[in-house]
Amino acid sequence: MNQNIPDIKKLEIIHYPNPILMEQAAPVKEIDENIVALSNRMIDMMVESDGVGLAAPQVGVSLRLIVVSPTGKKEDAEVLINPELTNLIGCTDSEEGCLSLPGIRGKIRRSESCTVTAYDLDGNKFTMDATDFTAIILQHETDHLDGTLFVDRLNAIGKMAARRGLRSLEREFDESH
Ligand SMILES: [Zn+2]
User: Domain total for the chain?
Assistant: First the structure.
């Protein structure tokens, strides 16, 4: 049995500094209809928010599940359950943002290519090689499963530039909790 997934209709994208975003997410133990419904809802939420990736902790569900769509289109979306990254090779700098950190962007160094192994919604294990933008999205989203946000990977100057935005999100969080 997986942990309780809240009512799918009530899911919303949570923002920093919600503590769920800083947790280590639990592996998905069983791919049941709740996981299918969660994945489909996450794809819709990602597309509606003009995102290219979304991790379950970002909708308040601390499970190892991500959805990605490098084109931002629904038909290109893929669900990756319990994803593992290997063969992290090369390095590339690019500007990132995050649906859980609205208003904040920053340059991050990531590996240029990687291999991902994951399960799909039918429970089939698959492996995929990714480069460039897709590899960056996969690294950003799997980071979420370990409680790491892209701002944690900013260099000192980037962290300074992000400070005002982070403070403002902290105030918003305090006011709503
Ligand atoms: Zn993110």
Answer: 1
